[in-house]
Amino acid sequence: MAENLRIIGDTLPGVDMNAPLxxxxxxxxxxxxxxxxxxxxxxxxxxxxxxxxLAIVGESGSxxxxxxxxxxxxxxxxxxxxTGGAVRLHGVDILKQDEDTKRGIRSNHIGMVxxxxxxxxxxxxxxxxxxxxxxxxxxxxxxKDAKKRAGELLDLVGIPDAKNRIxxxxxxxxxxxxxxxxxxxxLALEPEILIADEPTTALDVTVQAQIMxxxxxxxxxxxxxxxxxxxxxGVVADVADDVAVMYAGQxxxxxxxxxxxxxxxxxxxxxxxRAIPRVDTLGQELEVIRGLPPNPASxxxxxxxxxxxxxxxxxxxxEEPPWASVAExxxxxxxxxxxxxxxxx
Amino acid sequence: MNxxxxxxxxxxxxLEARDLVKHFPVQRGIVFKRTVGHVQAVDGVDLELHAGxxxxxxxxxxxxxxTLAKLLVGLEPPTSGSINLLGQEIGNLPQRxxxxxxxxxxxxxxxxxxxxNPRMTVGDIVAEPFAIHPGVVPKDKVTAEVKELLDLVGLSPDHVxxxxxxxxxxxxxxxxxxxxxxxxxQILVCDEPVSALDVSIQGQVINxxxxxxxxxxxxxxxxxxxxxxVRHIADEVAVMYLGKIxxxxxxxxxxxxxxxxxxxxxxxxxxVPDPELRGRREEIILQGDVPSPINPPSxxxxxxxxxxATERCAEEVPSLDVGDNGTRPPVSHHHPNQPxxxxxxxxxxxxxxxxxxxxxx
Lengths: 345, 361
Prior knowledge:
The complex is a heterodimer of chains A (345) and B (361). Chain A is of the alpha/beta class and 345 residues long. Chain A is built from 13 helices and twelve strands. Chain A has two domains: 2-6 and 17-240, P-loop containing nucleotide triphosphate hydrolases (Rossmann fold, 3-Layer(aba) Sandwich), CATH 3.40.50.300; 248-341, no CATH class. Chain A has helices at 64-72, 99-108, 117-120, 127-139, 143-156, 162-165, 175-187, 205-222, 233-239, 257-262, 267-274, 314-318, 337-341, and strands spanning 22-33, 36-48, 53-57, 80-89, 92-93, 110-113, 193-197, 225-230, 242-247, 250-256, 323-327, 330-333. Chain B has 361 residues and is α/β, with parallel strands linked by helices.
């Protein structure tokens, strides 16, 4: 470990502090599976400002986790390859940096919280050691110092009796407490962006409420940008400022939280919102999206949602819809976005 | 349950459990095993299910929901208590004698990926119950019956020769439902049947379950942690915490007039998919985690996380009748919007209604 031990002062050369915090432009990711190229992300565009929360919503297989892994630079390669696009942090394209710089960007600028804290933590080291490792490797702290700061972090994320718990191992923590440890690790080097990939999916609702509140509090306190990846529209409605809806590797719609829920401009978003059981539809049959999400290896032509869409016309099966604006800060990928937005369709 | 509900359904319940208890011994030692404690998975549960109705059971992981499901279908023998299935006591029968009764009560599992044998074709999976219960369907009619079952759950009868991996999660759950329906049971116990599915697929399976209930006159015990799904499908709801039912009532009573502090906390913690409600609902954030069922708190089991707890809660165990103060007005199933002051059974000394699902601020 000694050769890695160095102090990184400026981890990001060429910073333009006037540029947006994070800008993802036309990001493309492909997987090579048995010699075949399977697109997982097909041109994702979004941006994140300091202190804002962007939720990326989608069903399983929609490419939301792959997008976040590509942004974080932890995509498993092979089989995954970033085949195009740019990820700009303060105006610097981080995809073009060398491995050393990328390593500095991770955790110094972007922190990540994973869904499954038990498999994301190393069972053989105490949590204090694992959190302290960040300070030792990235900041060159001494063991004693690192341990002290690990204790402070555990205290910050609300682990009771933090001083005595830094020597404990991951299995000695409950699911919610483990997720707190993960958050402590992600926050250790005071990143500007926190990516939380389904941070509460494995937890019970009462614990989920605790964790979401903690994330929100810390975000506000440090005015971080938060990217929340989830399939739960309830969680989104609770915390997000902006929402990007993903389907089959594309962002279908992006807008502010109120616009997405009140005036969706994409049939997929509309159908997704209607599929949730709610009080005013009690006693009725649930509205469902017919069919299944497409196989990424054989996507339908034209709009990828057209075989399941209730508004589809002939045009949709041949022509790919453009990524167009329907209102300020409200974009949608649909031939009939305007009509859907005005609720005429 | 209570007399008022009994009048509502004059018929006998199809399934009734009384004081159901399941304790799993915790053993230490290799050669000489000694029991050092018990996991009190289910501890004194009463429930009643009527034909054509759905009883929802909600609670967090570790509250004993799945153990309850296994007890009801006879996969685990209860430590004590009785289970009455269609007028027959099955709780303390030996496994061999339970088998004929299993025809009437079947289980739908949570995980459609592991509950189907990957080496068997769909036709074999759905036909397997007929091999275990010969005499239900004559041998030469089995193939036709299987095709009919697949059709009933919305799968193509031509798919009998396919294997489970060729189906999506939602379709696999349909196969599981077809298998459960093969013996024409009267009751289905569904243990988290849609938890593993995406929202868009979840709705399809729920609609199917509702349609089957109405067409075949089935009764469901529907176990789930997703409260909005349970609200949609259930007529009555029981809320479980650490092996005990803490509150029970119609879906409207539980969701619109929750009285137990735990139910209130649970409902408050469920995020509502409506950004307008952000910050306008009553917010209850519980401290800590669910205590271990090996050594549950004395008295009321929720008291360690409850903001209302007093000394009395540590000393006395509140029963489901305790919240009523003995004055319980008749409860009607036909008025989902109960007048204020619903008094359904709640196991809390300080039960009091609180609206946590609607905007209050």
